[in-house]
Amino acid sequence: MSHAHADLAYVAAVLGALACFPVLLGGNRVILAGLGLLATAEVWMAFALVPGRDLQLLVTSPVRAVALVGAGLVVLGIAFLFNRHPGVAPIVLLVAAPFRIALSLGSQHARLLLPLYGALAAATLALAWRLFRNGPARRIPRSLAVPSAVLICLYSLSLLWARDVSAGSIELAAFLFPFLALVAVVVHEPGRPWLARALVFVLIGEAVVFSAFGLWEEAARHTYVSNSSLEVSNTYASFFRTNSLFYDPNIYGRHLALALSVLVVLMWQSRRLLALTAASIAFIWIGLYYSYSQSSLVALFVVVVGITLVAAGGRTRRVVAIGAVTLALVGVGLAAVGGQGHSFRRLTSGRSHLASITFEVFTDHPLVGVGVGSQPLATQKKSVSSASAKKDTSHTTPLTVAAELGIVGIVAYLAWFAGAFVTLRNAWRRDATIGLALAAVFGVLFVHSLSYSGFFEDPITWGSLALAAACVMHGTARSEGDKSVAEVATGP
User: Fold this and answer.
1) Does 2 score more than 80 pLDDT?
2) What are residue 108's DSSP bridge partners?
3) If residue 110 lies in a helix (H) or strand (E), which one and from where to where?
Protein backbone atom coordinates (compact mmCIF):
# COMPACT_ATOMS: atom_id res chain seq x y z
CA MET A 1 0.00 0.00 0.00
CA SER A 2 1.43 3.39 -1.02
CA HIS A 3 2.01 6.18 1.49
CA ALA A 4 -0.93 8.22 0.14
CA HIS A 5 -3.26 5.23 0.33
CA ALA A 6 -2.06 4.46 3.86
CA ASP A 7 -2.97 8.02 4.89
CA LEU A 8 -6.47 7.48 3.49
CA ALA A 9 -6.73 4.24 5.45
CA TYR A 10 -5.69 6.00 8.67
CA VAL A 11 -8.36 8.68 8.19
CA ALA A 12 -10.98 6.00 7.46
CA ALA A 13 -9.95 4.07 10.58
CA VAL A 14 -10.38 7.17 12.75
CA LEU A 15 -13.79 7.88 11.21
CA GLY A 16 -14.81 4.27 11.87
CA ALA A 17 -13.63 4.56 15.47
CA LEU A 18 -15.69 7.74 15.91
CA ALA A 19 -18.76 5.94 14.53
CA CYS A 20 -18.73 3.11 17.08
CA PHE A 21 -20.29 4.86 20.05
CA PRO A 22 -22.98 6.83 18.15
CA VAL A 23 -24.14 3.74 16.26
CA LEU A 24 -24.43 1.54 19.35
CA LEU A 25 -25.27 4.03 22.09
CA GLY A 26 -27.01 6.98 20.48
CA GLY A 27 -30.57 8.09 19.82
CA ASN A 28 -32.15 8.67 16.41
CA ARG A 29 -30.12 11.59 15.10
CA VAL A 30 -26.95 10.37 16.76
CA ILE A 31 -27.31 6.90 15.20
CA LEU A 32 -27.90 8.50 11.80
CA ALA A 33 -24.74 10.58 12.23
CA GLY A 34 -22.83 7.45 13.26
CA LEU A 35 -24.06 5.54 10.22
CA GLY A 36 -22.99 8.45 8.02
CA LEU A 37 -19.49 8.36 9.54
CA LEU A 38 -19.36 4.61 9.05
CA ALA A 39 -20.40 4.87 5.39
CA THR A 40 -17.75 7.55 4.81
CA ALA A 41 -15.14 5.34 6.47
CA GLU A 42 -16.08 2.43 4.20
CA VAL A 43 -15.81 4.56 1.04
CA TRP A 44 -12.46 6.02 2.04
CA MET A 45 -11.15 2.59 2.97
CA ALA A 46 -12.18 1.28 -0.45
CA PHE A 47 -10.18 4.07 -2.12
CA ALA A 48 -7.25 3.20 0.14
CA LEU A 49 -7.34 -0.50 -0.66
CA VAL A 50 -8.02 -0.46 -4.42
CA PRO A 51 -5.42 1.18 -6.69
CA GLY A 52 -6.68 4.03 -8.85
CA ARG A 53 -6.04 2.14 -12.11
CA ASP A 54 -8.30 -0.66 -10.90
CA LEU A 55 -11.02 1.76 -9.81
CA GLN A 56 -10.92 3.31 -13.28
CA LEU A 57 -12.00 -0.03 -14.70
CA LEU A 58 -15.42 0.55 -13.14
CA VAL A 59 -15.81 3.69 -15.26
CA THR A 60 -14.00 2.76 -18.44
CA SER A 61 -15.65 -0.65 -18.75
CA PRO A 62 -19.30 -0.21 -19.81
CA VAL A 63 -20.20 -3.69 -18.59
CA ARG A 64 -18.80 -3.06 -15.11
CA ALA A 65 -20.34 0.41 -14.95
CA VAL A 66 -23.77 -0.95 -15.85
CA ALA A 67 -23.34 -3.79 -13.36
CA LEU A 68 -22.41 -1.29 -10.62
CA VAL A 69 -25.43 0.90 -11.34
CA GLY A 70 -27.65 -2.17 -11.49
CA ALA A 71 -26.33 -3.37 -8.14
CA GLY A 72 -27.12 0.01 -6.63
CA LEU A 73 -30.66 -0.09 -7.94
CA VAL A 74 -31.13 -3.62 -6.58
CA VAL A 75 -29.95 -2.46 -3.14
CA LEU A 76 -32.42 0.43 -3.24
CA GLY A 77 -35.21 -1.93 -4.25
CA ILE A 78 -34.42 -4.35 -1.44
CA ALA A 79 -34.27 -1.44 1.01
CA PHE A 80 -37.77 -0.42 -0.11
CA LEU A 81 -39.02 -3.97 0.50
CA PHE A 82 -37.36 -4.08 3.93
CA ASN A 83 -39.11 -0.84 4.81
CA ARG A 84 -42.47 -2.15 3.62
CA HIS A 85 -42.07 -5.52 5.36
CA PRO A 86 -40.42 -5.01 8.76
CA GLY A 87 -38.85 -8.09 10.28
CA VAL A 88 -37.68 -9.60 7.00
CA ALA A 89 -34.15 -8.11 7.03
CA PRO A 90 -32.63 -10.51 9.63
CA ILE A 91 -33.90 -13.48 7.61
CA VAL A 92 -32.33 -12.23 4.38
CA LEU A 93 -29.11 -11.44 6.22
CA LEU A 94 -28.94 -14.97 7.62
CA VAL A 95 -29.61 -16.45 4.17
CA ALA A 96 -26.73 -14.41 2.73
CA ALA A 97 -24.30 -14.82 5.64
CA PRO A 98 -22.43 -18.00 4.56
CA PHE A 99 -21.66 -17.11 0.96
CA ARG A 100 -18.36 -15.68 -0.23
CA ILE A 101 -18.08 -14.73 -3.89
CA ALA A 102 -14.77 -14.64 -5.77
CA LEU A 103 -14.24 -11.15 -7.19
CA SER A 104 -11.55 -9.81 -9.52
CA LEU A 105 -10.97 -6.18 -10.42
CA GLY A 106 -7.73 -5.53 -12.24
CA SER A 107 -4.94 -6.65 -9.92
CA GLN A 108 -7.35 -7.18 -7.01
CA HIS A 109 -8.62 -10.69 -6.23
CA ALA A 110 -10.66 -11.60 -3.17
CA ARG A 111 -13.44 -13.80 -1.84
CA LEU A 112 -15.95 -11.43 -0.26
CA LEU A 113 -19.32 -11.69 1.48
CA LEU A 114 -20.93 -9.85 -1.43
CA PRO A 115 -24.52 -11.14 -0.91
CA LEU A 116 -24.33 -10.15 2.74
CA TYR A 117 -22.91 -6.72 1.94
CA GLY A 118 -25.74 -6.03 -0.50
CA ALA A 119 -28.43 -7.14 1.94
CA LEU A 120 -26.76 -5.23 4.78
CA ALA A 121 -26.52 -2.03 2.73
CA ALA A 122 -30.24 -2.29 1.96
CA ALA A 123 -31.10 -3.03 5.60
CA THR A 124 -29.00 -0.08 6.77
CA LEU A 125 -30.80 2.26 4.36
CA ALA A 126 -34.14 0.96 5.63
CA LEU A 127 -33.01 1.51 9.22
CA ALA A 128 -31.89 5.06 8.45
CA TRP A 129 -35.27 5.82 6.86
CA ARG A 130 -37.17 4.43 9.87
CA LEU A 131 -35.02 6.42 12.29
CA PHE A 132 -35.63 9.56 10.24
CA ARG A 133 -39.38 9.10 9.95
CA ASN A 134 -40.46 7.22 13.06
CA GLY A 135 -40.20 7.55 16.81
CA PRO A 136 -37.15 7.24 19.09
CA ALA A 137 -34.72 4.39 18.63
CA ARG A 138 -34.44 1.59 21.15
CA ARG A 139 -31.52 1.64 23.52
CA ILE A 140 -29.22 -1.31 23.04
CA PRO A 141 -28.40 -2.97 26.40
CA ARG A 142 -25.21 -1.40 27.68
CA SER A 143 -23.88 -4.83 28.59
CA LEU A 144 -23.41 -5.39 24.85
CA ALA A 145 -23.23 -1.87 23.42
CA VAL A 146 -20.40 -0.44 25.53
CA PRO A 147 -17.85 -3.29 25.27
CA SER A 148 -18.66 -3.82 21.58
CA ALA A 149 -18.11 -0.13 20.84
CA VAL A 150 -14.87 -0.12 22.84
CA LEU A 151 -13.51 -3.24 21.15
CA ILE A 152 -14.29 -2.14 17.57
CA CYS A 153 -13.03 1.36 18.34
CA LEU A 154 -9.75 -0.09 19.65
CA TYR A 155 -9.38 -2.29 16.60
CA SER A 156 -10.00 0.72 14.35
CA LEU A 157 -7.46 2.96 16.07
CA SER A 158 -4.87 0.17 16.12
CA LEU A 159 -4.52 0.59 12.35
CA LEU A 160 -2.50 3.72 13.21
CA TRP A 161 0.32 1.50 14.53
CA ALA A 162 -0.40 -1.65 12.50
CA ARG A 163 2.58 -3.48 10.97
CA ASP A 164 0.43 -4.61 8.02
CA VAL A 165 -1.74 -1.65 7.04
CA SER A 166 -3.22 -3.42 4.02
CA ALA A 167 -4.37 -6.51 5.96
CA GLY A 168 -5.65 -4.31 8.79
CA SER A 169 -7.62 -2.18 6.35
CA ILE A 170 -9.22 -5.30 4.88
CA GLU A 171 -10.15 -6.51 8.37
CA LEU A 172 -11.88 -3.22 9.13
CA ALA A 173 -13.54 -2.62 5.76
CA ALA A 174 -14.68 -6.18 5.09
CA PHE A 175 -15.66 -7.29 8.58
CA LEU A 176 -15.66 -5.01 11.63
CA PHE A 177 -17.21 -1.92 10.04
CA PRO A 178 -20.01 -3.84 8.25
CA PHE A 179 -20.73 -5.92 11.35
CA LEU A 180 -21.02 -2.78 13.45
CA ALA A 181 -23.88 -1.80 11.14
CA LEU A 182 -25.20 -5.37 11.32
CA VAL A 183 -25.63 -5.14 15.09
CA ALA A 184 -27.53 -1.86 14.76
CA VAL A 185 -29.77 -3.24 11.99
CA VAL A 186 -30.72 -6.44 13.81
CA VAL A 187 -31.26 -4.81 17.19
CA HIS A 188 -33.50 -2.07 15.79
CA GLU A 189 -35.49 -4.34 13.48
CA PRO A 190 -39.16 -4.42 14.53
CA GLY A 191 -39.97 -7.66 16.32
CA ARG A 192 -42.35 -10.13 14.72
CA PRO A 193 -43.85 -13.27 16.30
CA TRP A 194 -42.81 -15.42 13.32
CA LEU A 195 -39.19 -14.23 13.21
CA ALA A 196 -37.75 -16.90 15.54
CA ARG A 197 -39.36 -19.72 13.57
CA ALA A 198 -38.19 -18.25 10.25
CA LEU A 199 -34.59 -17.88 11.44
CA VAL A 200 -34.56 -21.48 12.70
CA PHE A 201 -35.93 -22.73 9.38
CA VAL A 202 -33.29 -20.77 7.43
CA LEU A 203 -30.39 -21.95 9.58
CA ILE A 204 -31.44 -25.60 9.48
CA GLY A 205 -32.60 -25.49 5.86
CA GLU A 206 -29.25 -24.11 4.69
CA ALA A 207 -27.43 -26.76 6.72
CA VAL A 208 -29.50 -29.51 5.06
CA VAL A 209 -28.67 -28.12 1.61
CA PHE A 210 -24.97 -27.77 2.48
CA SER A 211 -24.88 -31.29 3.90
CA ALA A 212 -26.62 -32.74 0.84
CA PHE A 213 -24.12 -31.04 -1.44
CA GLY A 214 -21.25 -32.28 0.69
CA LEU A 215 -22.55 -35.84 0.54
CA TRP A 216 -22.81 -35.53 -3.24
CA GLU A 217 -19.15 -34.46 -3.29
CA GLU A 218 -18.26 -37.50 -1.18
CA ALA A 219 -20.11 -39.83 -3.55
CA ALA A 220 -18.61 -38.20 -6.66
CA ARG A 221 -15.16 -37.77 -5.08
CA HIS A 222 -15.05 -34.26 -6.43
CA THR A 223 -15.16 -30.85 -4.73
CA TYR A 224 -17.26 -28.20 -6.45
CA VAL A 225 -15.57 -25.07 -5.00
CA SER A 226 -11.94 -25.10 -6.11
CA ASN A 227 -9.34 -25.22 -3.32
CA SER A 228 -5.86 -26.22 -4.48
CA SER A 229 -4.58 -27.27 -1.04
CA LEU A 230 -7.70 -29.37 -0.43
CA GLU A 231 -7.35 -31.03 -3.83
CA VAL A 232 -3.74 -31.96 -3.06
CA SER A 233 -4.76 -33.29 0.34
CA ASN A 234 -7.57 -35.38 -1.15
CA THR A 235 -5.20 -36.77 -3.75
CA TYR A 236 -2.70 -38.15 -1.27
CA ALA A 237 -4.77 -38.74 1.89
CA SER A 238 -6.57 -41.98 2.68
CA PHE A 239 -9.85 -40.10 3.16
CA PHE A 240 -11.75 -37.54 1.09
CA ARG A 241 -12.64 -34.18 2.68
CA THR A 242 -15.69 -32.30 1.42
CA ASN A 243 -16.23 -28.55 1.51
CA SER A 244 -19.73 -28.31 -0.02
CA LEU A 245 -20.35 -24.72 -1.16
CA PHE A 246 -17.49 -23.38 0.97
CA TYR A 247 -13.84 -22.82 0.17
CA ASP A 248 -12.70 -24.23 3.52
CA PRO A 249 -13.95 -27.56 4.98
CA ASN A 250 -13.61 -26.14 8.51
CA ILE A 251 -15.93 -23.24 7.72
CA TYR A 252 -18.35 -25.71 6.15
CA GLY A 253 -18.18 -27.84 9.30
CA ARG A 254 -18.74 -24.80 11.50
CA HIS A 255 -21.99 -23.90 9.74
CA LEU A 256 -23.27 -27.46 10.11
CA ALA A 257 -22.33 -27.44 13.81
CA LEU A 258 -24.33 -24.23 14.29
CA ALA A 259 -27.49 -25.85 12.93
CA LEU A 260 -26.91 -29.04 14.92
CA SER A 261 -26.58 -27.08 18.17
CA VAL A 262 -29.93 -25.35 17.56
CA LEU A 263 -31.58 -28.67 16.69
CA VAL A 264 -30.34 -30.15 19.98
CA VAL A 265 -31.86 -27.20 21.86
CA LEU A 266 -35.20 -27.72 20.10
CA MET A 267 -35.08 -31.45 20.83
CA TRP A 268 -34.69 -30.76 24.54
CA GLN A 269 -37.19 -27.91 24.70
CA SER A 270 -39.97 -29.41 22.59
CA ARG A 271 -40.88 -33.03 21.80
CA ARG A 272 -43.61 -32.19 19.27
CA LEU A 273 -41.47 -32.87 16.19
CA LEU A 274 -38.94 -35.20 17.78
CA ALA A 275 -38.72 -37.61 14.84
CA LEU A 276 -38.15 -34.83 12.29
CA THR A 277 -35.61 -33.15 14.56
CA ALA A 278 -33.71 -36.41 15.09
CA ALA A 279 -33.71 -37.15 11.35
CA SER A 280 -32.37 -33.66 10.59
CA ILE A 281 -29.64 -34.09 13.19
CA ALA A 282 -28.60 -37.44 11.70
CA PHE A 283 -28.50 -36.14 8.11
CA ILE A 284 -26.55 -32.97 8.94
CA TRP A 285 -24.15 -34.86 11.20
CA ILE A 286 -23.24 -37.25 8.38
CA GLY A 287 -22.38 -34.22 6.24
CA LEU A 288 -20.28 -32.84 9.09
CA TYR A 289 -18.45 -36.15 9.45
CA TYR A 290 -17.20 -36.12 5.86
CA SER A 291 -15.81 -32.61 6.29
CA TYR A 292 -13.34 -34.18 8.76
CA SER A 293 -13.28 -30.86 10.59
CA GLN A 294 -11.91 -31.73 14.02
CA SER A 295 -12.39 -28.16 15.29
CA SER A 296 -16.10 -28.27 14.35
CA LEU A 297 -16.63 -31.69 15.94
CA VAL A 298 -14.98 -30.56 19.18
CA ALA A 299 -17.03 -27.35 19.26
CA LEU A 300 -20.22 -29.33 18.69
CA PHE A 301 -19.33 -31.85 21.41
CA VAL A 302 -18.61 -29.15 23.99
CA VAL A 303 -21.78 -27.19 23.21
CA VAL A 304 -24.07 -30.24 23.12
CA VAL A 305 -22.77 -31.29 26.54
CA GLY A 306 -23.37 -27.74 27.79
CA ILE A 307 -26.92 -27.66 26.37
CA THR A 308 -27.71 -30.99 28.01
CA LEU A 309 -26.35 -29.89 31.38
CA VAL A 310 -28.60 -26.81 31.23
CA ALA A 311 -31.77 -28.33 29.78
CA ALA A 312 -31.84 -31.88 31.14
CA GLY A 313 -32.97 -33.21 34.50
CA GLY A 314 -30.64 -33.95 37.39
CA ARG A 315 -30.10 -37.65 36.65
CA THR A 316 -29.45 -37.04 32.95
CA ARG A 317 -27.00 -34.29 33.83
CA ARG A 318 -24.96 -36.65 35.97
CA VAL A 319 -24.92 -39.35 33.29
CA VAL A 320 -23.92 -36.86 30.58
CA ALA A 321 -21.23 -35.27 32.76
CA ILE A 322 -19.68 -38.65 33.54
CA GLY A 323 -19.93 -39.75 29.91
CA ALA A 324 -18.37 -36.51 28.64
CA VAL A 325 -15.44 -36.75 31.04
CA THR A 326 -14.94 -40.41 30.13
CA LEU A 327 -14.99 -39.68 26.39
CA ALA A 328 -12.58 -36.79 26.85
CA LEU A 329 -10.14 -38.98 28.81
CA VAL A 330 -10.43 -41.79 26.26
CA GLY A 331 -9.83 -39.32 23.45
CA VAL A 332 -6.73 -37.92 25.15
CA GLY A 333 -5.48 -41.45 25.76
CA LEU A 334 -5.99 -42.53 22.16
CA ALA A 335 -4.28 -39.37 20.92
CA ALA A 336 -1.33 -40.03 23.24
CA VAL A 337 -1.01 -43.63 22.05
CA GLY A 338 -1.45 -42.77 18.38
CA GLY A 339 0.93 -39.86 18.66
CA GLN A 340 3.87 -41.83 19.97
CA GLY A 341 6.92 -41.11 17.86
CA HIS A 342 5.42 -37.88 16.50
CA SER A 343 6.05 -34.33 17.66
CA PHE A 344 3.31 -32.26 19.25
CA ARG A 345 3.68 -29.81 16.38
CA ARG A 346 2.86 -32.54 13.86
CA LEU A 347 -0.06 -33.84 15.94
CA THR A 348 -1.60 -30.36 15.96
CA SER A 349 -0.91 -29.81 12.23
CA GLY A 350 1.55 -27.06 13.10
CA ARG A 351 -0.90 -25.00 15.15
CA SER A 352 1.04 -25.44 18.41
CA HIS A 353 4.07 -23.89 16.70
CA LEU A 354 1.97 -21.00 15.37
CA ALA A 355 0.53 -20.47 18.85
CA SER A 356 3.98 -20.33 20.45
CA ILE A 357 5.31 -17.89 17.84
CA THR A 358 2.18 -15.73 18.16
CA PHE A 359 2.69 -15.63 21.92
CA GLU A 360 6.24 -14.40 21.30
CA VAL A 361 4.81 -11.60 19.14
CA PHE A 362 2.63 -10.64 22.12
CA THR A 363 5.57 -10.66 24.55
CA ASP A 364 7.55 -8.44 22.16
CA HIS A 365 4.66 -5.93 21.96
CA PRO A 366 2.79 -6.42 25.25
CA LEU A 367 0.94 -3.13 25.67
CA VAL A 368 -0.98 -2.45 22.43
CA GLY A 369 0.26 -5.19 20.10
CA VAL A 370 1.17 -5.00 16.42
CA GLY A 371 -2.18 -3.63 15.24
CA VAL A 372 -5.30 -4.95 13.55
CA GLY A 373 -4.74 -7.67 10.94
CA SER A 374 -0.97 -7.70 11.52
CA GLN A 375 -0.52 -10.92 13.53
CA PRO A 376 0.10 -13.14 10.47
CA LEU A 377 2.82 -10.85 9.09
CA ALA A 378 4.43 -10.39 12.51
CA THR A 379 4.41 -14.15 13.09
CA GLN A 380 5.86 -14.76 9.62
CA LYS A 381 8.75 -12.41 10.32
CA LYS A 382 9.27 -13.89 13.78
CA SER A 383 9.47 -17.44 12.42
CA VAL A 384 11.45 -16.36 9.31
CA SER A 385 8.87 -18.20 7.21
CA SER A 386 9.02 -18.24 3.43
CA ALA A 387 5.28 -18.95 3.14
CA SER A 388 2.69 -16.22 2.65
CA ALA A 389 1.68 -14.31 5.78
CA LYS A 390 -1.80 -15.84 5.57
CA LYS A 391 -0.28 -19.26 6.33
CA ASP A 392 0.92 -17.89 9.68
CA THR A 393 -2.53 -16.99 11.04
CA SER A 394 -2.56 -18.18 14.64
CA HIS A 395 -5.96 -19.98 14.45
CA THR A 396 -6.48 -19.09 18.12
CA THR A 397 -8.58 -15.96 18.55
CA PRO A 398 -7.50 -15.02 22.11
CA LEU A 399 -3.85 -15.24 21.03
CA THR A 400 -4.56 -13.21 17.90
CA VAL A 401 -6.21 -10.51 20.03
CA ALA A 402 -3.24 -10.51 22.40
CA ALA A 403 -0.73 -10.20 19.55
CA GLU A 404 -2.64 -7.47 17.70
CA LEU A 405 -3.98 -5.39 20.61
CA GLY A 406 -1.76 -6.32 23.55
CA ILE A 407 -2.85 -6.19 27.17
CA VAL A 408 -5.25 -3.35 26.40
CA GLY A 409 -6.92 -5.55 23.80
CA ILE A 410 -7.10 -8.55 26.12
CA VAL A 411 -8.94 -6.43 28.69
CA ALA A 412 -11.32 -5.15 25.99
CA TYR A 413 -11.86 -8.69 24.68
CA LEU A 414 -12.64 -10.08 28.14
CA ALA A 415 -15.01 -7.18 28.83
CA TRP A 416 -16.74 -7.83 25.50
CA PHE A 417 -17.02 -11.51 26.29
CA ALA A 418 -18.47 -10.72 29.73
CA GLY A 419 -20.99 -8.40 28.07
CA ALA A 420 -21.91 -11.15 25.62
CA PHE A 421 -22.46 -13.57 28.50
CA VAL A 422 -24.69 -11.10 30.35
CA THR A 423 -26.72 -10.39 27.21
CA LEU A 424 -27.22 -14.09 26.44
CA ARG A 425 -28.13 -14.82 30.08
CA ASN A 426 -30.73 -12.05 30.05
CA ALA A 427 -32.15 -13.39 26.78
CA TRP A 428 -32.38 -16.86 28.37
CA ARG A 429 -34.27 -15.37 31.30
CA ARG A 430 -36.73 -13.76 28.88
CA ASP A 431 -37.25 -16.96 26.93
CA ALA A 432 -35.42 -20.19 27.68
CA THR A 433 -35.49 -21.57 24.14
CA ILE A 434 -34.40 -18.42 22.33
CA GLY A 435 -31.73 -17.66 24.89
CA LEU A 436 -30.37 -21.21 24.93
CA ALA A 437 -30.36 -21.45 21.12
CA LEU A 438 -28.48 -18.17 20.75
CA ALA A 439 -26.06 -19.18 23.50
CA ALA A 440 -25.48 -22.49 21.69
CA VAL A 441 -24.73 -20.68 18.42
CA PHE A 442 -22.35 -18.28 20.14
CA GLY A 443 -20.78 -21.17 22.05
CA VAL A 444 -20.03 -23.13 18.86
CA LEU A 445 -18.38 -20.07 17.34
CA PHE A 446 -16.35 -19.36 20.47
CA VAL A 447 -15.09 -22.92 20.98
CA HIS A 448 -14.32 -23.17 17.26
CA SER A 449 -12.32 -19.94 17.50
CA LEU A 450 -9.94 -21.55 20.01
CA SER A 451 -8.52 -23.75 17.25
CA TYR A 452 -9.51 -21.92 14.07
CA SER A 453 -9.66 -18.33 12.86
CA GLY A 454 -12.68 -16.31 11.82
CA PHE A 455 -14.49 -15.51 15.07
CA PHE A 456 -14.92 -11.75 14.70
CA GLU A 457 -15.02 -12.22 10.93
CA ASP A 458 -18.17 -14.36 11.08
CA PRO A 459 -21.37 -12.27 10.80
CA ILE A 460 -23.25 -14.89 12.84
CA THR A 461 -21.06 -14.06 15.87
CA TRP A 462 -22.36 -10.51 15.89
CA GLY A 463 -25.84 -11.42 14.65
CA SER A 464 -26.43 -13.90 17.48
CA LEU A 465 -25.54 -11.27 20.09
CA ALA A 466 -27.69 -8.67 18.34
CA LEU A 467 -30.65 -11.08 18.36
CA ALA A 468 -30.07 -11.74 22.06
CA ALA A 469 -30.08 -8.00 22.72
CA ALA A 470 -33.26 -7.61 20.64
CA CYS A 471 -34.88 -10.40 22.66
CA VAL A 472 -34.05 -8.57 25.87
CA MET A 473 -35.27 -5.25 24.49
CA HIS A 474 -38.50 -6.51 22.94
CA GLY A 475 -39.33 -8.70 25.92
CA THR A 476 -40.92 -12.05 25.20
CA ALA A 477 -43.92 -12.57 27.43
CA ARG A 478 -43.74 -15.70 29.56
CA SER A 479 -47.26 -15.79 30.83
CA GLU A 480 -49.40 -18.92 30.46
CA GLY A 481 -51.44 -17.33 27.71
CA ASP A 482 -48.44 -16.82 25.41
CA LYS A 483 -46.86 -19.38 23.14
CA SER A 484 -43.40 -20.54 24.13
CA VAL A 485 -40.65 -20.05 21.59
CA ALA A 486 -40.36 -23.79 21.34
CA GLU A 487 -43.86 -23.80 19.89
CA VAL A 488 -42.99 -20.89 17.61
CA ALA A 489 -39.84 -22.64 16.42
CA THR A 490 -41.49 -25.98 15.75
CA GLY A 491 -44.74 -24.65 14.32
CA PRO A 492 -48.36 -25.47 15.12
Assistant:
1) no
2) 105
3) strand 108-112
